[in-house]
Amino acid sequence: MIQAVFTVESKIITGYEISGHSDFSAQGSDIVCAAVSSAAYMTANTVTDVLGLKCDITVNDGFMKLSLSSAEAQPAQVILNGLLLHLNALCEEYPDFIDLKISEV
């Protein structure tokens, strides 16, 4: 199962951590993993390369973590909220394969 956790500080999303594999289908044809991975990478690339924000990103097999300071997170709210909405929709469509949580700090 994919675990997605969004970190929220004072109602501002400051990052996300996505880990695991959905096991929806075989590797290479798993549409759930592909949808989550694509959205997570697009978000990270938009935050860093398009918005030019400084953040900490860690990527390993089946793992991505992006963290922003509160100041850097403010201009990224639209894209971070977009990722949250997208993953929430996938969670509703595939509840046995994705778990979504919000961690308020």
User: How would you sum up the major sheet?
Assistant: 5 strands, mixed
CATH architecture field? 2-Layer Sandwich
Distance between the termini: 24 Å
CATH classification class: Alpha Beta
Backbone structural class: alpha+beta
- Overall 3D shape: globular
- State Rg: 13 Å
Number of domains: 1
Q: What is the CATH superfamily label?
A: Cysteine protease Prp
Unreliable residue stretches:
none
- The share of residues in helices is 25-40%
**Total of helices:** 3
Overall mean confidence score, pLDDT: 97
Q: What name does the CATH topology carry? A: Alpha-Beta Plaits
The percentage of residues in β strands lies in 25-35%
What is the strand arrangement across the widest sheet?
3-4-2-1-5
Report the count of strand segments.
5
The helix-strand sequence is EEHEEHHE
What does this entry look like structurally?
The protein is α+β, with helices and mostly antiparallel strands. It has 3 helices and 5 strands, in the order ββαββααβ. The model has no long low-confidence stretch (mean pLDDT 97). It is 39% helix and 31% strand. Strands 3-4-2-1-5 form a 5-stranded mixed beta sheet. The protein has one domain: Cysteine protease Prp (Alpha-Beta Plaits). Strand 3 and strand 4 form a beta hairpin. The radius of gyration is 13 Å and the shape is globular.
